[in-house]
Write a structure and sequence with these properties.
alpha/beta; Aminopeptidase
Length: 286
């Protein structure tokens, strides 16, 4: 994929050279993307049941993710991911659980999606921890791929996507994606339209189960352009399970009680989504 074709690129260069336009360049870029680039689409595969779920523990190996006071995102996400998988299997013994990693190792973002696609997964759940300069901010956020731009959503996506800089040949692998470019993130957020509705439904159930089921603060369902969700061919979500930059969240997530409760909330959400989805699918068939 070319993020901007040569003609558009030439026009943008001219615009950027005009000093009075500096503040409106992002708006012009967004307009050009929508007007000049056909929205990318994915072929939607009908699934009558949910039998395989891929659980992705964010970061790993030489990529610690965000960290504070000795707590590393890669360790928290792995603990939660393994617990989520175990709880889903207890509730739904017929569902196959696949992990993108089950140990402290580095897995490139493209490979995480490839694991889900290769195994014909019905759901992809990526687990991460959040961080911000404002250490009073706390709570969970659950993301689906999509264009519902907010500055804070963009910052989360940029931080999570920066991991590709640790990969070899990332420019070719991700077709010109620049993790430092807001325009690249906006373009990526146009993907996943085929499964956006189901992804948002799953994300909503996660936020509901966490905020009401285990009584944790939830910041709602959001949309942004995440590289790890870009190439998945099924409903996919990314859950920011709390802020490592926040002392209370950090202590909660690094303890057994927090890991168990967050995992319970996610597993309960998956069970509720599966029941609703399969009931709806059955009604359509009948």
């Amino acid at each position: 994929m070319k993020i901007i074709n040569s003609k558009v690129d030439a026009k943008l260069n001219k615009v950027k050279n005009l000093p009075w336009c500096e503040n409106i360049v992002p708006l012009l870029l967004l307009f050009i993307f929508v007007a000049a680039v056909p929205p990318p689409t994915a072929k939607k595969i009908y699934r009558k049941s949910i039998s395989t779920i891929v659980i992705d523990a964010g970061h790993g190996g030489h990529d610690p993710g965000c960290h504070a006071a000795g707590v590393k995102e890669k360790e928290v996400t792995l603990a939660v991911a393994l617990s989520v998988g175990k709880k889903i299997q207890e509730q739904l013994p017929d569902v196959k659980i696949i992990y993108t990693r089950s140990a402290d190792k580095f897995v490139e973002l493209w490979e995480r999606a490839a694991i889900a696609n290769k195994n014909n997964a019905d759901l992809f759940i990526s687990i991460h921890c959040n961080s911000t300069k404002n250490n009073t901010v706390s709570g969970t956020e659950t993301f689906a791929m999509g264009l519902k731009k907010a500055d804070e959503n963009l910052e989360v996506a940029k931080r999570e996507n920066e991991v590709i800089l640790l990969e070899d040949d990332y420019i070719e692998r991700y077709e010109g994606f620049d993790p430092n470019s807001p325009e690249s993130h906006i373009y990526f957020s146009l993907f996943q339209n085929a499964y956006m509705d189901q992804s948002i439904k799953l994300a909503s159930k996660v936020e509901q189960q966490i905020s009401k089921g285990i009584n944790r603060p939830g910041r709602g369902v959001k949309q942004a352009g995440f590289v790890v969700l870009w190439q998945t061919k099924m409903p996919s979500i990314l859950i920011e399970i709390g802020f490592i930059s926040n002392k209370k969240d950090r202590e909660y997530l690094s303890g057994n009680k927090g890991v168990d409760e967050i995992a319970t909330g996610i597993a309960n959400a998956v069970s509720a989504y599966k029941k609703s989805y399969e009931s709806s699918s059955s009604a359509k068939i009948n």
